[in-house]
Write a structure and sequence with these properties.
Elements (H helix, E strand, L loop, with lengths): L1 E2 L2 H14 L5 E5 L6 H11 L14 E5 L3 E6 L6 H7 L1 H5 L4 E5 L13 E7 L5 E5 L6
Parallel strand pairs: 2-5, 2-6, 4-5
Antiparallel strand pairs: 1-7, 3-4, 6-7
Length: 138
């Protein structure tokens, strides 16, 4: 699907969030500025989270409370798979919350089989192509 603005990306994320259930893991892929955090803000809104979602680039995880806990993980600063394993990322996969991972390609060996994969591609300054293996009814 195509998004022509940040607001549209958030709305897409909100629709995705409304379809998620406890234990879902969302892997986000895309270059810097592709809209991973923007999409996450929408997902959080769809999960009835009223907190302001921020990029967790300087910490590995931010936890937010919606209708279920939301674990927003950013692996950009993870240099090696061992770092990610030491951090204990797999514990979040078996939680009763929703796990959203930015830069998920850095943990591809650890992701559960049923991970929802979403790739954001920058087409121009405002337009993004969003590809996913998940039917959210859009």
């Amino acid at each position: 699907m195509i998004s022509n603005s940040e607001e549209e990306t958030k709305r897409i994320g909100e629709k995705i969030g409304k379809k998620l259930k406890k234990g879902d893991v969302i892997a986000l892929y895309g270059e810097f500025g592709a809209g991973k955090t923007v999409l996450t803000k929408g997902i959080a809104k769809g999960l009835e989270c009223n907190e302001q979602v921020k990029s967790p680039s300087f910490v590995f995880v931010h936890e937010y409370q919606g209708k279920v806990p939301i674990y927003h993980i950013d692996l950009y600063r993870a240099n090696k798979l061992e770092d990610i394993m030491t951090f204990g990322i797999q514990e979040f996969f078996s939680s009763q919350g929703i796990c959203i991972i930015e830069w998920a390609e850095r943990a591809k060996e650890l992701l559960p089989e049923n991970t929802i994969k979403i790739e954001l591609k920058t087409l121009n300054e405002n337009t993004r192509e969003i590809l996913m293996n998940f039917d959210c009814g859009l």
